[in-house]
Each structure stands twice: as C-alpha cells, then as structure tokens.
Target: Membrane protein
Amino acid sequence: MPSAETTRTSVREPEPVRPTKDDEVAAAGSELIGGPIGRRALLGASWWTPVRVIALVAIGMFALGMVQKLPCYDSGWFFGASTQYTHACYSDIPHLYQGRGFADGLVPYFDKLPGDMDYLEYPVLTGLFMEVAAWLTPGGGSIQHQEQIYWMVNAGMLMVCAAVIAVCTARTHRLRPWDGLLVALAPAFALTATINWDLLAVALLAAAMLMWSRGRSLAFGVLLGLATAAKFYPFLLMGPLLVLCWRAGKWREFGNALMGAVGAWLVVNLPVMYLAPEGWAKFYSFSQTRGIDFGSVFLFISTWWKIPISYQTANAWALVLMVLVCVAMAALALTAPRRPRFAQLAFLIVAAFILTNKVYSPQYVLWLIPLAALARPKWRDFLIWQACEVAYFLGIWMYLAYTTSGEAHKGLSSHGYQFAIAAHLLGTLYLCAVVVRDILMPERDVVRRAGEDDPSGGVLDGAEDVFVLGAAAHPPRHAAHFDGPQVEWGGNGGGPAPEDSSL
Model:
C-alpha cells in the first residue's frame, strides 16, 4: 500500500500557464525582449514574480500616458481650446478643479455651484476622491499652476489605482498570472487613465473580482458596493452572479454578496443623502436628463440618418435594449453546455451597458479592460479590440479639433467621426461575439482549454449544476467536466499559487 507521502508526490500540480507557450501573438511579441523565457530561467531571480513585473509594467505604462498629456500640461489646457484636441491630451481633471468649485473651497453636494451645473454631478465616493485631491493641492500661485498641481495629485492617486487593477487581475486567475499584462500593456488604458476619475471604480471592482475568486463573497459584496458608490456600472455584475448562483444553487453566497454590496453603498451614500439630498441626487438626475452625446450608438444613428433623438427616447430604448440583453444573457447562462465563467458574463453585461448607453466617453474603455483580460485572455482578439478603441480615442479628439478650429477646420469631419464611432462599436461587438462563442463552445475557451473550470468563479469553480435548461439539462450535468487536473486553489479559498512562474 503506498504511503501518504508517495500519494502526494504522485499527483502533480498543474503549472501556471505561460502565454509565450500558449499564445502565438505573445510568443511573437516576446521576440522583442529576447524570446520566450524558459521554465527555469527565473530560479535565480525569484524576486521578479509575475505580479511584481506586471505592477511595474502597469506603473511604467501609466507614466507614459502622463507623458502623452505633457503638451496640455504645459499650455494646452489653458491657452486655445483646439490645442488639447489636436494633441489628443484632453483631461477633465484640471478643468473641473475650478469649474466644480474645488479651487474656491466649495464642499461637493453641500455648496451650490455658480452657473448651470448647480451641484457636482458625480457619485459620492468619486466626489470624495476629488475632494481629497483638492485638499492635497496647495492654494498658492496662479489658478493655472493650481490646476496643474491638482492634475498631478490626481494622477498620483490614479496611478495607485492602476497598479491595484493590474495586480488584482493577475491574481484572480491563479494559474494565469501573466494575463495581467493585457491590462498593464493595454494602449487604451495608458491613453485614457487620467482623463477622468473612472480608475477608482475600476480598481474597487478588480479587487472585488479577486475576493470572489477566493470564495470571500461578503468581501466581494462590500467592494462591489464601494465601486458602485464611485460609478454605477459595477452593480450590473449582480445580475450575472444571480443567474450563475441560481444554476449552481449557491444562494447563501449570493445573499452574502448582495447584503455586502447594499450595505457598503448605503454606508457611503446615506449621510450625504440625508444631509444634502439635492446635491446627492444631482448625479442621478443629470444621468436621466442628459442628451445623447459623443460615441454613442444613438449619436451615430442620429447623425448618419439625420434622425433627431430626444433624451427621453434614448432613455426608453436604452432600457428596452438592456432588458432584452439581460434576458438573453440569462437564457445563455442557463442553457449553455457548461456554466459560463463569471468573468465572461461580467464582461458581456458591462459591454452591453456601454453599447446601449447615451454617451461613450473615451475613458469608459477602462471599465472593460480588466474584465476583457479575464473573459478572453487571447492577445490577438484583445489587440484587435484595443486598435478599435485607440482609433476612437484619436477620432473624438480630432473631431473636436475640427469643430473648435473655426474656418481652418483642422481635424476630422463629422463623417470621419462616425467611422470612429463605428470602429468602437464593431470592436466591442467583435470581442463580445468571441466571448459568446467561447460560452457556447467551451472547448474554444483558452482558460478551460488549460484545464481549469472557472478560476474567477470562487464557489462556482467546479460546482455541480442544480438548475439548467435545454440541452444542458441532460446528464452529465456537472460543471467541471474537463480533461486535466483539479487543484484546491481553483476557487474555494485554497493555498497560494506559485508566483515564480515564467513568462
């Protein structure tokens, strides 16, 4: 009879996936730095773990994004409206320092602002982030100098968020840490990171996804609630989670997540809601009455076919389309041959919200990048989508340059901008289609092909189905039918994964 030690050593734990071995695009790209690294190449340099490398790359790319804003930092934000567009270096941050009363010491939500925007139109946690940055900005010197410092302070705080996003993404899939490089090296991430304050919500959501992958449902809920207090879109993930927990019978974990999310959101919002109800409600009323704006499918339809679309019509159609998408996603999740991975449905629901929204600001791509890296960690598809987003990033600034340069008409005309919108829409739809194909044909899913079930699924990872519809209702009905070893750290809070894996 074999000893326990012999049994333990006979079961070989799976190695972390190396993208230079698994992905042809990653392998080709690695030639720029000397080619793929061997299995044992890093044994003498154990400090350079994947997570540390990814964090440093993310910080480096973020710094390059700051350098890209240098023409505006020097003068573009202050002298001549078209300069910040021709150099594609626009940012809301310096403009709102004075425009939203931070330069004058006004308290967000409590003090009325001069002009049409009577209160700050951001969610409470984002408003707090903006206010903290204002506290750290010295008041001496000209207003131009103060705006420069305010942008720099915000950039430093947002850089921390960027590092958190990259690290959390890398650690969510324990056997695929190098997928975090998709986030760290994403060109649209670097270009849009300091346009607005979206990275705060993205970082909180990335941390929430990490907690769920570890089986910590309450911590996931708390972080999701905080992310929703910074931006509305993270709460959409409760929909896919509901359907997946329904299929797996994980009602207790879903209840913990929902309780944590609602509780955390209320803790942040209730004080402001009670003490400054008008200011607190501004974000929601502004979102409701805002007209169709840049980048949206509604603007594309209105401009291309010359159809006027009111904000009421856009609101109604956006709601109808989102309801239809949610129904379709629920049907997909309950009838798929294998239960979809949580990250796949999370990406699809946020992408649907972006595609049906009344506005698509360039920085909204940040919402999708970490989810895309988890849902479809394939460099070819990721880079195709990123190319479309970079095209849109350049297109919107060139279009604004065209509209603000007077008779000179420097930039991109309205027709050219419509093609930029189409590039964004088609690129996002392409990535959605590939993810849906992976759900319907799980053998095409690069994550499951490596021998895992749902590494970001937490308690869903390897769980048995208890409610399915269609062909999936026929046996075998176990969610973890795959060829390959099963490991304890796959999603139920097991031991730490090795961090000295090679690229």
About this structure: Confidence is low (pLDDT under 50) at residues 1-12, 40-44, 476-503. Residues 48-102+137-196 form one domain. The CA atoms of residues 188 and 390 lie 6 Å apart. DSSP finds 23 helices and no strands in the chain.
